[in-house]
Structures are given as structure tokens and as C-alpha cells.
Amino acid sequence: MPRNGSPDAPMLLLATGNRGKQKELQALLAPYGWQLRTPDQVGGLPPVEEHGGSYAENATLKARAAAQHTGLWALADDTGLEVDALNGAPGLHSARFGPRGQAGTDAERRAHLLTLLRGHPRPWAARFRCVVALAGPDGTLILADGVLEGEIIPTPQGEHGFGYDPLFWLPELGRTLAQLSLEAKNRLSHRARAVQRLGPALRALAAGTRAA
User: Fold this and answer.
1) pLDDT at position 209, please?
2) Which is nearest to 81 in space by CA: 62, 100, 106, 63?
3) What is the DSSP letter of 42?
4) pLDDT under 50 in the chain at which residues?
5) What DSSP state is assigned to residue 100?
6) Where are the chain's structural domains?
7) In angstroms, rounded to a whole number, what is the distance separating the alpha carbons of residues 99 and 110?
8) Within its chain, how far is the Cα of 102 from the centroid?
9) Measuring CA to CA, how many Å separate 99 from each of 82, 110, 116, 123?
């Protein structure tokens, strides 16, 4: 089980309703000295329209709205899958990438992606790009990003992860992200790399907030 910090540690809200992201973030953030909270533990999150023109803008919108709504420090991310053969799509629209722009299920989004890739020669080079935003109720904002290179395969493989993970092949490992355990994924994923870059700020803020 992820550690959630000592009883006197400050609280950090994971500003996402995505259960898969919550699970990953709880494991990734466990070493940094915060008590982690999910939206259902604090009465939910305010609705946020992700109308930003970049991952950083969308992550910032979500983190700041959560911090202002709850009075807690909040961490949000915005992540996209960028496929070279599709000129970087789905990109910012990865979570709502379906026929006629409808979000649908993870399986439906994967099927839509593969439909669009038919006729394009393989390998289908792609990358996951993630930006995490840490926002304080005082208006503080810190951003960090991470990228994971790979390729899309035509048949889903693996039972772990979520979203596009079963289609995201890591040539150096000979596996998809969905074939990795949570621990293995959290050593190399785009989200892990972003949180790692944010790590020094997370530690410093946790220590400073506790001391205050």
C-alpha cells in the first residue's frame, strides 16, 4: 500500500476522477511526505472545462480549480498520446478521442485510433506526453513534464494500466505498458518522469508546510 505521510504531514489532493491515474499517482507520490487525498474523500471536485491550448494549461486549470475549491494543495495532470502518422493526434483530445468527438470507453477510443491508422505503414511511432501541475491555495503553481517514446501496435496486449496502455509498445522491453506491473510502469512512464521532476519541490513544500 502506498504511504500517505505522517499524521502531521500536509494534505495533497489528487485532482482527478480517473481511478487508474489515482492509483498510479498514489504510488508515485508516496515517498514525498504528503497525506494524499482523492476527490471522493473531500466532497468531490468542481467542474472544469479543459479548454486550454496545451497540456500545461489544462493541468493548471484543473489543479488551480481544485486548490481554490478545497483550500488544499492539489496536483493535476494532463496527458496525451501523440501518434506521428496522425500528425500528433489524438494529443490534447486523447481522453475524448472517439467517432464524432465522443469520449466513449477506453476500448472504443483504442478501436477508433486503430481505425484511423489503417493504411499507414508501420511502425506507428508515438509518445505519451504528460504535464503535472502542483497548485497551492495561495496561488503557487509549479509545473513539470515527462515524455515516453514508443509505438502503437494493431492488437491490444496486456491487462494492466488503462487508456491506450494495451496498444503502447515499448520496443526496448518487448512489451506494452499494459503488460507491466504498476511498479514497473511507475519506474519509466511519462507520468512517473513528470512526478520525478517535480519531486524536489514536493519534498521542500511538504517540509515547509509541516513546519509552518
Assistant:
1) 67
2) 106
3) T
4) 1-3, 210-212
5) G
6) 11-211
7) 11
8) 20
9) 18, 11, 10, 24
81, β-bridge pairs: 128
C-beta of residue 26 within 8 angstroms of C-beta of residue 5: no
Nearest to 12 by CA among 78, 79, 70: 70
Q: Residue 1 has what pLDDT?
A: 32
Which cell numbers hold the place of 50? 479543459
Per-residue pLDDT at 3: 44
Q: In terms of DSSP H, where are the helices of the chain?
A: 19-29, 55-70, 106-117, 182-185, 190-211
**Kind plus residue range of the DSSP H or E element containing 129:** strand 124-135
Whether the Cβ atoms of residue 15 and residue 75 lie closer than 8 Å to each other: yes
User: Where does residue 209 rank: exposed (0-12), middle (13-18), buried (19+ CB within 10 A)?
Assistant: middle
**120 close to 85: Cβ distance less than 8 angstroms:** yes
Look up residue 99 and give its amino acid.
P
Residue with cell 472504443: 108
Q: Which top CATH class is 11-211?
A: alpha beta
Using the structure block, give the residue that is written with the C-alpha cell 504531514.
9
The amino acid present at 190, given as its one-letter code, is H
Q: Which of 77, 78, 145, 165 is catalytic?
A: 78
Instruction: Give the position of cell 505503414.
Output: 121
Active-site residue, 40 included:
no
Q: How many CB atoms lie within 10 A of CB 32?
A: 22
